[in-house]
Amino acid sequence: MSLTAPALAIASPVRHSQPALCVAPATRPVADFVNRIINGDCIQVIATMPDGCVDLVVTDPPYVARYRDRSDRTVVNDNTTSWLKPAFQQIARALKNNRFCVSFYGWHKADAFLAAWRAAGLRPRAHFVWIKRYASGTKLVEYCHEQAYLLCKGEPPKPSLILRDVLEWRYTGNRYHPTEKPLMALRPLITAYSNPGDVILDPFAGSGATAVAAKQLRRHYIAIELDGRHCATAEERLQRTETGHQA
Ligand SMILES: C[S@@+](CC[C@H](N)C(=O)[O-])C[C@H]1O[C@@H](n2cnc3c(N)ncnc32)[C@H](O)[C@@H]1O
Questions:
Q1: How far apart are CA 61 and CA 200, in angstroms?
Q2: What pTM was computed for the model?
Q3: Which atom from ligand 1 is nearest to the alpha carbon of 61?
């Protein structure tokens, strides 16, 4: 579906001596977003969601790496950090207190990602590394890992499943998306940091990998993606997805 943000209420003109008037966009009930792939900019879409309405965020934002694969496929917003702070401000607002956010990130822009997370009140509590059996690139070294931070809003209780912070990675073939994440890497995160019936948000959904893993594990999802072609792929994947998978 395509979600059109409700119109902003326009404030009446103010004199320049007065402080600027901030008009927040009207919010819609979380039920309007649940189990949907929403085609839009996550900053604007989440701005229309209520405070503290999701139980877990698992996301894979652009790495700001100017990625281009062998078939010349690129990733929207992979050439700028301008979206980073506003996006994580909104993500943190939509996350319930005392909950987790797992975010992949580009290691060479770690400073920008950490600054955006901290500014949004998301505290780094652990770091995951996935070992690849192949190199995704070779320059000064062979690049053979992926990485993500486990971030906290507030003080979440200790998870019932304690994961190792070094995990195995299986190549997807990038059939659905140029930087596709394997479901086998996402399922343990969702299992450890949420419960069946919870709402999982992925604001940079791509081909819907987080949403597919969430549905398999009997969670609800909210998936936001700017590129309409990836939304169509995600819709197709989700239609084929059965619930009841083991982590
Ligand atoms: C690294 S990819 C995610 C791939 C996904 N994990 C998968 O397995 O298919 C990041 C995605 O974020 C999307 N994106 C970039 N800026 C966005 C924004 N402001 N709002 C929503 N989506 C955005 C890109 O189009 C891209 O598909």
A1: 15
A2: 0.91
A3: 10
